[in-house]
Design brief:
mainly alpha; Rossmann fold; three-stranded parallel sheet; AMP-dependent synthetase/ligase domain-containing protein
Length: 119
């Protein structure tokens, strides 16, 4: 059964994301969620439209490609399901010097994989 979403709710979710993460035009959002759900709209499309950040799409989910996109696009913010994050943290792709989880909240200038950036 489809759930109806109104544009004011979607824009409010996007505004909350922009404000809580302090996003601006210099940020790069790497979105791994499709725009058919709340997460894709609230963490990908709406913050991109409201904050003016660059949006990079990732479909379908592949660990190696996603890690490459994080490092090569200069992504400063992304979101992923906790099960995938836990699984990914155990794999070898996240244990390299260029892609370590040691920098939670790192800036876009670092080569760490930023999950959530704080200023």
């Amino acid at each position: 059964m489809p759930l109806f979403r109104y544009e004011d709710g979607i824009l409010a979710q996007g505004a909350m994301t922009v404000l809580s993460l302090s996003l601006d035009r210099s940020d790069v959002i790497l979105n791994a969620y499709p725009f058919t759900g709340t997460v894709g709209l609230g963490l990908g499309l709406a913050p991109w439209l409201i904050g003016g950040a660059k949006l990079v799409q990732h479909h379908p989910f592949e660990y190696g490609v996603f890690a490459d996109q994080l490092l090569n696009t200069g992504a400063t913010v992304t979101a992923m399901p906790s099960a995938i994050l836990a699984s990914w943290a155990r794999t070898a792709c996240c244990r390299t010097r260029a892609a370590s989880f040691g920098g939670w909240g790192g800036s876009g200038r670092q080569r760490n994989l930023p999950i959530r950036r704080r200023r």
